[in-house]
């Protein structure tokens, strides 16, 4: 008999998210450089806050996240009433799709855009629309050309993953101002912390009613395992998202950890500076070995090889040396490998191994 128990249309079109590898067969001393994690982990203040939180695990957490929202608002000089916190920025992306897009609606993402935009769009029953990029960089005109009366959301990450490239504030403003009236622009700022002095688009949010920014504690703050993100948008949009948000979506442990993380400005600044230093060193050393990359604004380098075969062979060689990097053929970059900027010893090991690989080839 035919199975009449079926999911909503679009669900079976979802390709499962591919995470970064974390184990290498038969190799000890493995370094994971495949998920853009902070190699130094969370700050000591965060570890202490998590330790203390275990005594309150029988209590339900805060529903309104007020203390964390106030800390974020203070640090970034934002309006706490227009901040929403979620289980990673992934949950904010999901809230946006569920609240604003459904069957018959279109959601735009770019050619090399982050996989969750497409997954959350399909989960909401809406139609993902992929727009070309120009030389691995978001193309504002291509996005504006793809917009129509069905377009409800446009997702761009700035800096972008997995390309590491950015577009300037004037270009983002031109995009916001050129959108149809029913379209909301989502600025994914997962890597905004890595750009010294960059507000992630917060000022654009403040000056427009069609822009929302998402941020995360998973990258610079070293808390990918704890799952905390946030969004900053116009009051009516935040009100909508709070209606689809579960009241207890974040545990008290998540909330206190995030607050300790964002208040530890010294640690965040040291991680940002160390990433910038090692990223430059890594990119230049790889270029010296004949492996170029675009100037990265994030915590990874997108290394370009001559073709897919060479990229895959290099990934396998690095893996055999305990160095796990990310293949990005699924992001339409088959000749590239995304390499997270690790600590100094990890960066040296990568360069040494890529050098060996280039020699034997
Ligand atoms: C890592 C990343 C995120 C963060 O996801 P979380 O759910 O907050 O861990 C969001 N967007 C992009 C582009 C990313 O690379």
UniProtKB/TrEMBL annotation:
Subunit (UniProt): Homodimer.
Entry protein name: Histidinol-phosphate aminotransferase
Any matching Pfam family: Aminotran_1_2
GO biological process: L-histidine biosynthetic process
EC number: 2.6.1.9
Catalysed reaction equations from the record: L-histidinol phosphate + 2-oxoglutarate = 3-(imidazol-4-yl)-2-oxopropyl phosphate + L-glutamate
InterPro entries cross-referenced by the UniProt entry: Aminotransferase_I/II_large, HisP_aminotrans, HistidinolP_aminotransfase, PyrdxlP-dep_Trfase, PyrdxlP-dep_Trfase_major, PyrdxlP-dep_Trfase_small
Necessary cofactors: pyridoxal 5'-phosphate
SUPFAM superfamilies: PLP-dependent transferases
Known pathway: Amino-acid biosynthesis; L-histidine biosynthesis; L-histidine from 5-phospho-alpha-D-ribose 1-diphosphate: step 7/9
Family in the record: Belongs to the class-II pyridoxal-phosphate-dependent aminotransferase family. Histidinol-phosphate aminotransferase subfamily.
Modified residues (N6-(pyridoxal phosphate)lysine): 219
């Amino acid at each position: 008999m035919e199975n009449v128990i079926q999911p909503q249309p679009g669900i079976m079109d979802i390709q499962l998210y591919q995470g970064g590898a974390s184990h290498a067969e038969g190799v000890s001393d493995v370094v994971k450089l495949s998920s853009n994690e902070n190699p130094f982990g969370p700050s000591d203040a965060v570890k202490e806050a998590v330790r203390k939180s275990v005594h309150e695990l029988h209590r339900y957490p805060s529903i309104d996240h007020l203390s964390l929202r106030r800390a974020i608002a203070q640090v970034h000089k934002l309006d706490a009433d227009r901040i929403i916190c979620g289980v990673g920025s992934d949950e904010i992306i999901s809230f946006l799709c569920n609240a604003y897009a459904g069957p018959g609606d279109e959601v735009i993402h770019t050619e090399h855009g982050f996989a969750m935009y497409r997954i959350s769009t399909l989960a909401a029953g809406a139609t993902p629309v992929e727009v070309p990029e120009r030389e691995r960089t978001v193309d504002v005109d291509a996005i504006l050309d793809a917009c129509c009366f069905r377009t409800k959301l446009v997702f761009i990450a700035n800096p972008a993953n997995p390309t590491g490239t950015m577009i300037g504030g004037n270009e983002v403003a031109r995009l916001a101002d050129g959108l149809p009236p029913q379209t909301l622009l989502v600025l994914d700022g997962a890597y905004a912390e890595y750009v010294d002095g960059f507000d992630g688009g917060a000022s654009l949010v403040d000056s427009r009613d069609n822009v929302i920014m998402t941020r995360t504690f998973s990258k610079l703050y070293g808390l990918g395992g704890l799952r905390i993100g946030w969004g900053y948008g116009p009051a009516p949009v935040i009100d909508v998202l709070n209606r689809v948000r579960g009241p207890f979506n974040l545990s008290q442990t998540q909330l206190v950890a995030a607050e300790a993380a964002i208040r530890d400005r010294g640690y965040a600044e040291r991680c940002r500076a160390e990433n910038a230093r090692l990223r430059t060193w890594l990119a230049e050393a790889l270029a010296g070995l004949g492996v170029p990359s675009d100037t990265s604004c994030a915590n990874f380098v997108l290394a370009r090889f001559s073709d897919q075969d060479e990229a895959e062979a290099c990934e396998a060689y690095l893996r055999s040396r305990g160095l796990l990097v990310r293949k990005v053929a699924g992001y339409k970059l088959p000749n590239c490998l995304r390499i997270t900027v690790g600590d100094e010893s990890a960066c040296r090991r990568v360069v040494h191994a890529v050098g060996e690989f280039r020699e034997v080839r």
